[in-house]
Amino acid sequence: MRRFPWLATLWTVLVYGFLYLPIVVLVIYSFNDSRMVTVWGGWTLRWYAEAAADQVVIDALVLSLEIAVATATASVVLGTCAAYALTRYRRFPGKGLFTLLLNVPLVLPTVVLAMVLLLFFVSMEHLFGFPQKGFTTLFIGHTVMCVSYAAITIMSRLREVDPALEEAAMDLGARPSQVFFLVTLPAIFQAVASAWLLTLSLSLDEVVISAFLSGPGTSPLPVVIFSRARLGLNPEINVIGAVTVYLVLAGLLLASVWMARRAKQRARENAALLRQAQVEALTSSSAS
Amino acid sequence: MNQTAAARADAARGAPDFLKIESIRKEYDEVVAVNNVSLAIEQGEIFALLGSSGCGKTTLLRMLAGFEVPTAGRIVLDGQDITALPPYERPINMMFQSYALFPHLTVYDNIAFGLKREGMPKAQIAERVEQMLDLVQLKPYAKRKPHQLSGGQQQRVALARSLAKRPKLLLLDEPMGALDRKLRERTQIELVHILRQVGLTCVIVTHDQEEAMTMADRIAVMREGRFLQIGTPSEVYENPKNRFVADFIGSVNLFDGELVVDEPHYCEIQTAECLFHVGHGVEGKQGMNLTVALRPEKISLEPGWQDLPYNAVQGTVAARSYMGSYTAYEIELPSGRRLRVTVTNVDRYEEPYELGVRVTAHWMPSAPVVIVE
To answer: CATH number for the A54-237 domain, one of 1.10.10.10, 3.90.230.10, 1.10.3720.10, 3.40.50.300?
Structure first.
């Protein structure tokens, strides 16, 4: 490799091309003025207008977002509880079993999970008339899958937090609930936030569970796209894909700008502290 | 010795059993971590629990703080039974070994944390925090986060935070554990100064005997969940009750022997190495087996082999290390065992004994102490 530096460059170009070329093509073809997805017919914005007017797509998008937000929030709340119990409580009957069971949704094929959930909901509806397939079943199904991811993310952070912090808070007069909200939560906040984002994107992305659990008129976006793709691709699909790409890019850009600004601010703070320390050292040495 | 300690305590202090630990026991499954220990600590006393890791000292401290519930026994503080109180209702604060400063809060908010939980008015909190910052000399650092402080400064924040609520009892868990040696010695004295200033009753857990002796009024040496000996630093050092304490605190030469003469004011013990003439009496029968403990700094060296009737052995210098303030020798005795001797370097030009040189080690009758146990 070292003897052929251009080989490394070529490899890098190939890998990134493999990853990003399809996305670039997708974005370009979202401006394609042609009925056919694969034939180039000049530039147009007409598919964007069409997608914006497509009530089915918009309903599906709104539903997807609603489910994703609800799922992410529920998963993070339940996941935090589970992580806290499994890392902080010394021992309780079935602790090992619970830890094991928490990992099952990660390794279980999604189809199996979806099937099981469907059978469960169908028999529930048969027995109690609840829940009907739709938002509720989608929400519960997504949460069942996402709780594991949230719990594992939060648990790994919680293990690193020194239990002495919580003891110190208690020692200083904080009741257990205060300890959690004033000390534990701030310490694991980053993990909780990233677990929320992770489960949000998992839920937005989920096709299999959604396909099994969606009811009439309540199909989330991936299911709609999937069913349309089977009927024959339409440039509108490209538009939906392209818009997703725009949103992700905008998010990444905002995040990196914010992080750069924070790093700069921290550097400035540290420089100020260093200067202060130097001044102190000088004054104290001249005093003595 | 007991009398002087007691007199000193009476003059300076309040209630003699301010903190009472009554036959406390803690078991984890089959393991007994703390085994029926009892203890009374005076108001204003600085008390050290000393022992190697796993001796139960930390478990005992955590029971005082309320993080562990005793299997049996009672803890009474200032007349109040606190055995069943949760940590957040005890008038006790603790300084943690890791300091456990809240990383997301500033120095000010760390110190104010306990006061806010009490529901103290804001102005009063500000006043108290200022006072604490003054006490630990950290006023310019109030707005910093813990990670922007040095180890010594973090320790002082932790101390200020544990003092802010004016607890009845302060617990220190290995307070110097995370500091380097030089800083440690200075901080020990500073810390004791602050504690005396506040007049606080304090229990320290440590595995470092120097730390315990520097800081504490009294020391309890712990082993396997029990107290082996409780006393002032000098009592524990000069009058160890058993071999373990003698060996654990400082360095010591131990000899097994047989009691041959027992008078009220002296006794004589025959060991394999020599006859010990000890300047205190023991309660025992003639012919009983005893241990004699002899500290290295209480032995003198003379050149050449001299015949003395008692309290002397002949040997050759087997090892020597120069430590600056003193020189440590190991003298090989005819029996093959080595005697540890330290000689204070009072003279800059003093010639040390060369390796292999014949010397006589001797000591006063007041140097050795007999351990009956």
So the answer is: 1.10.3720.10
